[in-house]
Design goal:
A hairpin with a 4-residue loop joins β4 (665-668) and β5 (673-677). α5 packs parallel to α7 and α17 runs antiparallel to α18. The protein has 36 helices and six strands. The protein is 67% helix and 4% strand. It has a six-stranded mixed sheet, with helices on both faces. By secondary structure, the protein is mainly alpha-helical. The protein is elongated and about 100 Å long.
């Protein structure tokens, strides 16, 4: 019998227990075999069963406890394993109970027991109990044990007893990189980032100690959060010296830091040189590009990610959907929607809200509503995205109805909700409704108006050509109006012919924001509109002397999943000749219709009207529509996006284009959507 057991001991230890305890069913088989061979009460064997059951994610702590109860004389390792299992379970108090069981049964407590008991105390938030164990640590002679010291510091840090953690650290005669990392993280969690970096400096002065991977992935993200690029670059350089730049976690932290500090060039360099990339690496780079305005590059990188067979997660897709929303890439956005089902990605509330936002901003408000209505759970961000989408499309009444539904669902609106609602009223010309909303925000929902809310009300009044009311509103505001509000009033004064008031406001706007190209351009437009060319040129010279450049107008169109960008007079496209031939044809057909008169007042040069008219034909939105006309089937919808407000001439031109070509044209400019169809626009010429 002894000989049989000896053979089984070797067989089970090497060929069975180490390789076969990988699931509950296989562990049950091992348990049965140990019972048959009378080896279960040998701690060498039973400890392996308990270790898997208590510590593995696929284990069973209750089963482990039953086995533990059958062991007559558990050794310190088995007891500590059970304590460790309970310390990380939903019932950490059992870890403390097992410690007292050890004491009662006179099972020796060692340096591996206390860290797990202290971890259980931290989970329970039991500071007094943890201090009692701290006393026992000192009493039993473990006050110089590095493993125990680290556990004590971590316990006090987790229980927000920062002073005690620092005292243990300060009084300890033994420290390793883990000790320093715990203290660095304790300072970071308390918001003491400078002190954390001071600790790093202290640590680096020690001869026998160097920062490790954990140190870097703790400190590098802080540089990104604070926008401290200089310090981030120093940590990047230091990580190279330490040979940590081969670690994917460190590279991911550095990559993310550069993205958050808007140093896309450095981020791309890190990304390209990474020996290994995971989904987090790709996601950081995608999001960084989108955040910095490189939307097309972000979408191109996503295509490359797919070619590399990297499966995206929900965070990746939220970033890509944001890029689609900004560029109006509806086809790519729809493709992302399909990927969610293909990869069985967790479509949480954040991802669903991103879909609503993407469809809204890509001009497909019906699909946005479809996603919104299918959502089982919605938060205030979801409602804001949908209300904001309806506002952009000029559906003021629907936005207000949705707000009523939001209140019916007992969801409290926030300040962003009211910005969306006020914009909806503004774009739909619902002046009374907008003013009522503004009052309700203050009086009923106790939301203090911000500058953005006041700006929406000014915009609401100005779009309705109520210039005097807008001026009175600004002058009676409890806070000083910024340049945006005055610029809104300036635009309204220009459109209603209040030149003297507009000129005074224009000068005031430039005083408030002397480095903004838009402010100079508005006043220059005003002068050019009444043929005061000397004043207009004087402003242009002022801009040049101050080094201020006008933001160029850009338009995008998506065709077959590809984004094409145009600026005014653009000749970079491979089909340039065809595009300009179509521009000529469009001009002829629009002129023959007779309902469009070129708005040459928008061309700010002292040249003949015929030349001005030619200049208007080369605006970026017309070039984008021309490409759409030659690249899509007759009768199909054309979607374009522009980074600036569409000018009066282009607005009129596209209305007639939609009529003579029998096409619906959906154009998103800086502030809203324009649905051109059969010679009219959804904005009712109110934008």
């Amino acid at each position: 019998m002894i000989k049989f057991s000896s053979k089984c001991t070797k067989l089970i230890t090497i060929d069975f227990l180490k390789t076969r305890c990988t699931s509950i069913s296989k562990t049950r088989q091992a348990h049965a075999l140990l019972l048959r061979t009378h080896l279960f009460h040998n701690p060498l064997f039973s400890s392996k069963l308990i270790a898997f059951l208590a510590l593995s994610h696929s284990g069973d702590l209750n089963y482990a406890r039953k086995l533990f109860a059958q062991i007559q004389n558990p050794d310190p390792f088995i007891c500590s394993t059970m304590i460790r299992g309970y310390a990380r379970s939903q019932n950490p108090y059992e870890a403390v109970s097992l410690y007292y069981f050890m004491v009662e049964r006179s099972v020796p407590v060692d340096s591996y027991t206390y860290p797990f008991v202290l971890a259980a105390c931290a989970r329970l938030g039991a500071v007094k109990l943890g201090r009692r164990f701290h006393c026992e640590v000192l009493k039993n002679g473990f006050g110089s044990d590095l493993f125990v010291i680290n556990a004590l510091i971590q316990f006090y840090h987790n229980c927000v007893s920062f002073g005690c953690a620092f005292q243990v650290f300060d009084e300890s005669t033994v420290r390793d990189v883990v000790t320093w990392n715990i203290m660095i993280n304790a300072h970071l969690n308390k918001g003491l980032s400078e002190k954390a970096f001071d600790l790093l400096d202290e640590m680096t002065k020690l001869d026998n100690l160097k920062p490790d991977e954990v140190t870097m992935i703790s400190l590098v993200p802080v540089c990104g959060q604070l926008g401290n690029l200089e310090r981030g670059k120093l940590l990047h350089s230091y990580s190279k010296e330490l040979g940590l730049n081969e670690k994917i976690s460190v590279n991911n932290a550095i990559l993310d830091m550069y993205c958050k500090c808007d140093d896309i060039e450095s981020a791309q360099e890190v990304f390209n040189r990474m020996p290994e990339k995971d989904v987090l690496s790709w996601t950081s780079m995608l999001s960084g590009l989108a955040k910095s305005g490189y939307f097309q590059e972000s979408l191109a990188l996503f295509r490359k990610m797919q070619l590399n067979k990297i499966e995206p997660d929900e965070i990746t897709l939220v970033g890509v959907l944001s890029a689609c929303a900004q560029t109006g890439a509806l086809d790519q956005g729809k493709y992302i929607h399909l990927l969610i089902d293909k990869f069985d990605i967790n479509c949480d509330i954040v991802l669903e809200t991103a879909l609503v936002d993407m469809y809204s901003k890509c001009g497909s408000i019906d699909l946005a509503l479809q996603v919104f209505r299918k959502m089982r759970v919605r938060n205030v961000f979801t409602w804001n995205a949908m209300i904001g989408g309806l506002a952009m499309h000029g559906h003021g009444g629907e936005a207000i109805s949705l707000f009523d539904q939001m209140k019916h669902d007992k969801l409290m609106p926030d300040d962003v909700t009211f910005i969306s609602l006020l914009c909806a009223c503004s774009h739909a010309g619902l002046v009374n409704e907008g003013l009522t909303m503004f009052q309700a925000m203050k009086n009923k929902f106790q939301i203090e108006p911000r500058m953005e809310h006041y700006g929406c009300v000014v915009d609401l009044l100005c779009r309705a050509r109520k210039v005097d009311e807008a001026l009175a509103f600004i002058e009676n505001m409890p806070i000083k109006a910024n340049s945006v509000l005055w610029a809104t009033l300036l635009g309204a004064c220009s459109s209603v012919g209040r030149f003297d008031l507009a000129e005074n406001i224009g000068r005031r706007v430039i005083e408030l924001e002397p480095d903004s190209c838009g402010r100079y351009v508005m006043l220059s437009n005003l002068y050019a509109g009444v043929s005061r060319w000397n004043n207009a040129l004087k402003l242009r010279k002022q801009m040049k002397n101050r080094g201020i450049e006008k933001t160029p107008g850009c338009s995008w169109i998506e065709l077959n999943g590809m984004i094409y960008q145009f600026v005014a007079g653009d000749r970079s496209h491979i089909q340039t000749e065809d595009i300009y031939a179509m521009i000529g044809e469009m001009t002829q057909r629009v002129n023959l219709d007779g309902s469009h008169v070129p708005g040459t007042e928008n061309v700010l040069f002292d040249i003949e009207d015929e030349e001005k008219e030619h200049s208007l034909f080369l605006h970026s939105e017309k070039l984008a529509v021309a490409l759409g006309l030659i690249s899509t089937p007759s009768g199909s919808l054309i979607r374009i996006v522009k980074n600036l407000r569409v000018c009066n001439d282009c607005h009129s031109f596209l209305k007639v284009t939609s009529k003579v070509y029998n096409r619906e044209i959906v154009a998103r400019d800086r502030s809203r959507f324009h649905h051109f169809k059969e010679g009219s626009c959804s904005c009712m010429d109110f934008w």
